[in-house]
## 1
Amino acid sequence: MEQILKYFPNLTETQREQFGKLQALYEDWNQKINVISRKDIGNLYEHHVLHSLAIGKALNFKSGTKILDFGTGGGFPGIPLAILFPECEFTLIDGTGKKIRVATEVANSIGLKNVTALHRRGEEEKGKYDFVVSRAVMPLPDLIKIIRKNIAKQNRNILGNGLLCLKGGNLEEELAPFSKNVEQTEISEWFEPEWFKEKYVIYVPL
């Protein structure tokens, strides 16, 4: 939790409380439904929460922005971002019902009013959004093929509408089809821990 405050010192009391409750909630749910590797649950704040919040460093979403979290799993990056941006609307979708149950229960337990979690595959999602966010769910060309239909025409943020996703490793081949307009930012520009080396926020305007 200290790591969150280090990089986001201006959180409200409510946001601090919401972030603070995540460890116990995910530990409890993880015993029933495995959404985070058992070995990794102790690194929840660094590897999952702070990692998700890198998208919030890449773009400070304006109030009213609509965001789709594609393949949210147990709620990442959607739930941390929904805490950080309470004036934005988040829709979390995943094809695995058990994972959506965890995301729903966690969001409800911390009182998030700006989150809707749905058991739905990306191909079935018809809504329009300013941005789609995701965390390494599938190769970029496949993901973009599915989500292009979901991007709203009208821009309201500094960045044009599109995809903001979290990826790691050598992405040269994956990014090649989008090389003209893709932006790749190493997360270690914002966050110090060694774990963030060679992990990136990828932005593709659509």
## 2
Amino acid sequence: MYMSNSRQETPSTPLHSVSVAGVVVREDGRVLTIQRADNGTWEPPGGVLELSEAPEDGVRREVYEETGLKVQVERLTGVYKNTARGVVALVFRCHVEGGHEQLSDESTAVEWLTPAEVVDRMGEVFAVRVTDALRDDAPHVRSHDGRKVIASA
């Protein structure tokens, strides 16, 4: 909020949260995934970007916290907006540099899935992030309602 003329007003611009995720790809093409502790869904590791950190640093931090693996960020592969919650997610393709797989308070399982297993286990809005990251074309920009991708006009 900001102050104007000694009255408290709310900003007219909507506020968004920014999250980051890493699609970590092994040499054999398998993708690092976690099963979330809070809701049981399978997703690429990631979370909320902290105010003071660069997106690439946030990806490295989140992947390490949730899986125990240190990663090198290769490139941005997509920007995804959850229109229902006002969350913008930046997704990056990564590869492992070190560490060893472990569980955390946020993950009940850590697995390397094939692209086909990703599509079978993940909800549409997370599977599309992985599928986009495995492609070599430009970053993708997509919106979704929390469950389904919204087709571009």
